[in-house]
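#struct-help
A.M.: can someone run this one for me? Single chain, 71 residues.
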Amino acid sequence: MMLNGQLQLMPAIINSELPIIAAVNGTAAGVGAHLALVCDLVIMADNAKFIEVFARRGLVPDGLGTWILPA
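D.P.: on it. Structure tokens below:
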């Protein structure tokens, strides 16, 4: 169920005609980071950060990360 939701949510944000704004207050990891990256504008707190742990674990990024991160 979570996988299907991710695969529908990310393209819906990318294809939206309305501007989508993300607010990051703290750590955005994995799908949370990818969710912010597909938005049109990201507003971050001073202590906010993005992390990707997939490479450290030998995993492939989920949440369309392999498509979003290189962009």
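A.M.: thanks! The longest strand covers residues 21-24.
D.P.: also worth noting: The beta strands are 21-24, 27-29, 41-44, 49-51.
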